[in-house]
Amino acid sequence: MTTDIRQVYRRLYLIRRVEETIVDIYPTDKVKSPVHLSLGQEAVAAGVCSALRPEDVVFGSYRGHASYLAKGGNLNAMMAELFGKATGCTKGRGGSMHLADARAGVMPTSAIVGSTIANAAGYAFGLRRLGTDAVVVSFFGDGATEEGVFSEALNFAALKRLPVLFVCENNSYAIHTHVSRRQSAQRLVERVRTYGIAASRVADADVLRIATEAQECVQALREGRGPRFLECATYRLREHVGPGEDWDLGYRSRDEALPWIQSDQVTRLGEMLEPRERAALEAAVEGEITAAVAFAEESPFPAASDLQNDVFA
Ligand SMILES: Cc1ncc(C[n+]2csc(CCOP(=O)(O)OP(=O)(O)O)c2C)c(N)n1
Ligand SMILES: [Mg+2]
């Protein structure tokens, strides 16, 4: 499988521009939920999802805009969800942290750190029993690898040789705490290998390398060769939660971000395209975003009489 640069760039640009649009809209209070942005981290979801087919499934986290969009989640329904509207992907009840689009293979996300790693392993167990060659991708942060569920899910997936690709989006921070203040040894890939899972790391966020690694992993999953693990180093350019920058908080410096800004993959891939082709692609994405914001604005809020519907207990 060769990587289609145009298609990867479309995903990168879509995620970048959707989130920049959210940043612009946020002060108006039209977005009714907290937002955990992936600005700076787009390459992970865009690269990995380029290896997937429509019938494959992704499980993300509360920082889930990127995986939702990269897997082809409906943009109108996402924007309406952020606006708290009845036409949102979870009828305006979930907001940014609970996006889902089953038709596109985007499973519900959760605010509980690490929880969807187990959901992903369980879904892969189901796929194995059905005998399809579809695969599951589980996206989570570096902080999630410190949760007990991470160990449990990896052990089970390795034991049952489940078709799941675990992807750690390692941005070095859990909220404001650097990984060096949380882990005595930062040897994640080595740690994962002790479960009997083949693991690799992309250290520079090169989206094309992430795509190639993901293709190899997904091929192995389809052939029933057991789970895989991919660690992708990346960097969050905005605050942990919210639309702003946070260089003044004192837990990190803007200097630390500079190498990541200089190697920005949205810029890099855009420059690899023929200018006219790039302009057409970007114009199409801008049109989709404008339409999605209009759709969200025009959609109704859920009716008060709807409050008790879809409640489990
Ligand atoms: C089980 C649980 N513990 C703690 C929290 C509070 N919390 C929310 S986000 C977060 C940091 C997680 O960091 P990481 O997994 O690296 O993801 P990132 O936010 O960097 O994408 C924490 C501790 C939570 N939501 N759930
Ligand atoms: Mg993190």
Structure description:
By secondary structure, the chain is α/β, with parallel strands linked by helices. It has a single domain (5-299), classed as Thiamin diphosphate (ThDP)-binding fold, Pyr/PP domains (Rossmann fold, 3-Layer(aba) Sandwich), CATH 3.40.50.970. The protein contains eleven helices and eight strands. Strands 2-1-3-4-8-7 form a six-stranded parallel β-sheet, with helices on both faces. A two-stranded antiparallel sheet has the order 5-6. The relative contact order is 0.17. The structure holds thiamine diphosphate (TPP) and magnesium ion. Residues 141-143, 171, 173-174 line the site of magnesium ion. Magnesium ion binds at residues 141-143, 171, 173-174.
Q: What is the CATH homologous superfamily assignment? A: Thiamin diphosphate (ThDP)-binding fold, Pyr/PP domains
Globally, the shape reads: globular
Q: What's the alpha carbon Rg, rounded to whole Å?
A: 19 Å
**For the record, what CATH class applies?**
Alpha Beta
What is the ordering of alpha helices and beta strands?
HHEHHEHEHEEEHEHEHHH
Low-confidence sequence ranges: none
Helix fraction, binned, reads 40-55%
Give the rounded overall mean pLDDT.
Answer: 97
In this structure, how is the largest beta sheet organized? Answer: 6 strands, parallel
Main sheet: strand order:
2-1-3-4-8-7
Which distinct ligands sit in these coordinates?
thiamine diphosphate, magnesium ion
Q: How many beta-strand runs?
A: 8
What class would the helix/strand composition place it in? alpha/beta
